[in-house]
Every structure is written in C-alpha cells, then in structure tokens.
Amino acid sequence: MSNGDKKGKFVTIEGCEGVGKSTQLRLLKEYCERQGINALFTREPGGCGVSEKIRSVILDPENSEMTAVTELLLYCAARSQHTQTVIKPAIESGKVVICDRYCDSTAAYQGYARGIDLNVVDSLNKAAMCGVKIDCTVFMDVPPDKGFARKGGVDAGDRLERENMDFHRKVYEGFKEIERRESERFASFTAQGTKFETHELIVKELIARGIF
Ligand SMILES: Nc1ncnc2c1ncn2[C@@H]1O[C@H](COP(=O)(O)OP(=O)(O)O)[C@@H](O)[C@H]1O
Ligand SMILES: [Mg+2]
Is residue 199 within 6 Å of ligand 1 at its C-beta? Predict the structure, then answer.
C-alpha cells in the first residue's frame, strides 16, 4: 500500500514517556518552517476536536476503573477520527504529516504492556488508520527510567504515566519488539547527545528517506 503518487508523507514519533518526542517534534517544526517544507504537526491521542475530548477521558486519573479493552477502543476511536479528518486529507494534499505517537504506542501500551491480544490490537489499529501508510517511524530508543529522570518524575495528571515502572518497562520492550518486526519502517535514535544533536540525526535520516 502506498500513500499515492504526488501525495505527501506520514512520519510518526514513538517512544516511552519523557524521551524527547515532543522536543523533537518542536525542532522539526522549526526546521520545516525555515526550509519552507509544507508540513502538518499533530499528536495522539488527540489532534482534532472529537479526539482531544476522547484524550481527556483516556488520561483522566479519575478514570482509574477503566478496563484495558475500553482504553484500547478509546485510543482507536480517537485515532480513527483524527486520521480520517486530519491526517489523511493532509497527506492527500501533499503535506508531510508528523505525528507525536500513533499505532505503535497502542501496540506497546495496550498490547505488550496491558496484555491485550496483539492480533486484536493490530486489527483495530488497521481499521483506525483508514488506509494510510506510515512512511517512517522515528523511535526514541531511551529506557523509561531515563525518560522519567529527564522529565523530573511522573505527571500525576496523566493516568498512563502513573502506571508503575514495571508497566513502563513492558512498554519499552514492546517498542523494541515492534522495532525488530518493522525494522525498515523504524529509524531509531538512542538520544545520547543533546536534543540538537539528535535533531540533526533525525533530519539527516528523513532526507535520506526522501521525506524532506
Ligand atoms: N536529548 C536530550 N537530552 C536531555 N534532555 C532532553 C533531551 N531531549 C529532551 N530532553 C528533555 O527531556 C524532557 C522530556 O522531553 P519531552 O520532549 O517532553 O518528552 P516526551 O514528549 O517524549 O514525553 C524535557 O524536559 C526535555 O527538555
Ligand atoms: Mg510529549
């Protein structure tokens, strides 16, 4: 499956909490503005009215009784709306769409960490993607303890972040497993240097892949 001829590109940024996804997204946004690249920056869960409302339900710490499958369905509901109304039209109009988290987060968190059957997760992800293809996934390969240290601890207002370290290690292992399975789509960065050094490496990689 391809996103088509003159069509745009779709890049996702994935990884655990605090590993620099939003920082890199911001630096890429500045880069695209400087270079005059027609790009759209967005995030999940969220990215449009309906999906931002679903986001607040998913992340609300008061919803501690939410079951794993409910959580999965909400993520995929938010993704479906965001993809159909924002991501897909932008790709079709020739833009480079760069999204902070996408399907691999659902596979890592709800599949590998929560333990929902990966075939179920993959089917729902596929439905929610509305036929778009991810051209490249920038994976910030930083273990969760380092991520939380960087961000100065857990955000108590985020139900997923509040899960224990064992959960976040399973998420990380999940990402590493997806990386092995999807080695061509994945571009991985250990983010050992400064955020600017990592940014340079990401830009180089996206140019090499014909995305920029
Ligand atoms: N390469 C880096 N080295 C050190 N600290 C970083 C680096 N990149 C980002 N940070 C810092 O780590 C924290 C979390 O970054 P953030 O981009 O919010 O992560 P995420 O969006 O993945 O949760 C921020 O305080 C950010 O300034
Ligand atoms: Mg972030």
Answer: no
CA of 178 to the centre of ligand 2 (A): 20
58 alpha-carbon distance from chain centroid: 16
Q: Which two tokens stand for residue 145?
A: 């303890």
Burial of 152 (0-12, 13-18, 19+ CB in 10 A): exposed
> How many DSSP H helices and E strands does the chain contain?
9, 5
Q: Is the CB of 18 under 6 A from ligand 1?
A: yes
Cβ pair 171, 122 in contact under 8 A: no
Residue corresponding to tokens 């996804």: 21
pLDDT tens digit string along 91-116?
999 999 999 999 999 999 999 999 99
Note the pTM of the prediction, 2 decimals: 0.95
- Nearest to residue 10, comparing CAs of 31, 34, 41? 41
Contact call for residues 18 and 193 (beta carbons, < 8 A): no
| Rounded-to-integer distance, Cα 101 and Cα 14, Å | 5
The residues near 115 (Cβ < 8 Å, ≥ 6 apart) are 68
- Cβ-in-10-Å burial (0-12, 13-18, 19+) of 131 comes to exposed
Ligand 1 pocket member 23 (CB < 6 A): yes
DSSP H or E segment with residue 122: helix 118-128
End-to-end Cα, the chain, rounded Å: 20
